């Protein structure tokens, strides 16, 4: 009878301790498992508190980017620039206004913005002939930056090639398939008195010809063999 009593008491104590631990876990979830372990393992040899990472996992991009839909150049004379890109380069002009003109190049769009006229946000209410409802973010240098950089300077570089001496010199490149196509464009530019800046032969086999547009932006016609993907 005595041995049975001494057997039941430790078992009862173990049950009580188990119930206390369960109560702590259920009634105090904010305490956290790591803190609970740390509290009850104090003084216990060779045991360390648990540590859990709370680092937030970043979500992946929602969809794969397909291609560059638009790129833009800031120009000073819309009529002159439209004639250059339409009549000299042969691009399809689908929009022509004093403030904005657009050209379709396959699935890509080249936009020409009149310098200093597009820096402010533009709001639309969807009424009448407006293109939609919302706001188009302003972009490009404002009038103060245009003035500070002297971008309204109408003088031309020495040699009379026709583009301003002061320019943003934005860069763009048009793709053709073969190296021979670039050579044909070089001859064509010379015939049309387009200012050719330089040419480049690439280690992968491609060739580039760099030229200036009427605003001094640096254009390029380039064949395959410049990048691993082109």
Account of the 3D structure:
The protein has five helices and ten strands, in the order ααβαβββββαβαβββ. It has 230 residues and is of the alpha+beta class. It folds into three domains: 39 residues; 69 residues, Roll (2,3-Dihydroxybiphenyl 1,2-Dioxygenase, domain 1), CATH 3.10.180.10; 74 residues, 2,3-Dihydroxybiphenyl 1,2-Dioxygenase, domain 1. Strands 1-4-3-2 form a four-stranded mixed sheet, with helices on one face. The protein is globular, with a radius of gyration of 35 Å. The termini are far apart.
What would you give as the CATH superfamily of the largest domain?
Answer: 2,3-Dihydroxybiphenyl 1,2-Dioxygenase, domain 1
Number of helices: 5
Can you tell me the CATH architecture of the largest domain?
Roll
Q: What structural category do the secondary elements indicate? A: alpha+beta
Identify the CATH class of the largest domain: Alpha Beta
Instruction: Determine the N-to-C terminus distance.
Output: 92 Å
Q: What would you call the shape?
A: globular
Q: Strand share of the residues? A: 15-25%
Write down the secondary-structure element order: HHEHEEEEEHEHEEE
Give the overall average pLDDT: 82
- Specify Rg, calculated over alpha carbons: 35 Å
Kindly identify the CATH topology of the largest domain.
2,3-Dihydroxybiphenyl 1,2-Dioxygenase, domain 1
**Number of beta-strand segments:** 10
Helix content: 25-40%
Poorly predicted regions: 29-42
Strand order of the largest sheet: 1-4-3-2
Number of domains: 3
């Amino acid at each position: 009878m005595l041995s049975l009593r001494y057997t039941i008491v430790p078992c009862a104590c173990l049950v009580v301790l188990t119930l206390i631990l369960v109560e702590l876990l259920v009634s105090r979830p904010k305490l956290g498992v790591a803190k609970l372990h740390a509290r009850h393992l104090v003084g216990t040899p060779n045991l360390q508190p648990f540590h859990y990472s709370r680092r937030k996992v970043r979500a992946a991009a929602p969809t794969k980017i397909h291609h560059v839909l638009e790129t833009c150049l800031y120009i000073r004379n819309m009529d002159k620039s439209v004639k250059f890109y339409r009549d000299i380069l042969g691009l399809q002009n689908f929009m022509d206004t004093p403030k904005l003109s657009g050209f379709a190049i396959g699935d890509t769009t080249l936009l020409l913005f009149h310098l200093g006229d597009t820096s402010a946000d533009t709001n639309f209410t969807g009424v009448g002939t407006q293109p939609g409802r919302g706001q188009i973010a302003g972009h490009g240098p404002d009038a103060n930056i245009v003035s500070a950089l002297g971008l309204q300077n109408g003088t031309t570089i020495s040699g009379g090639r026709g583009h301003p001496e002061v320019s943003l010199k934005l860069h763009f490149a048009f793709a053709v398939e073969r190296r021979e196509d670039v050579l044909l464009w070089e001859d064509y530019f010379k015939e049309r008195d387009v200012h050719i800046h330089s040419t480049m032969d690439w280690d992968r086999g491609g060739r580039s010809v760099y030229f200036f547009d009427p605003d001094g932006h640096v254009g390029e016609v380039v064949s395959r063999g410049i990048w691993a993907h082109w």
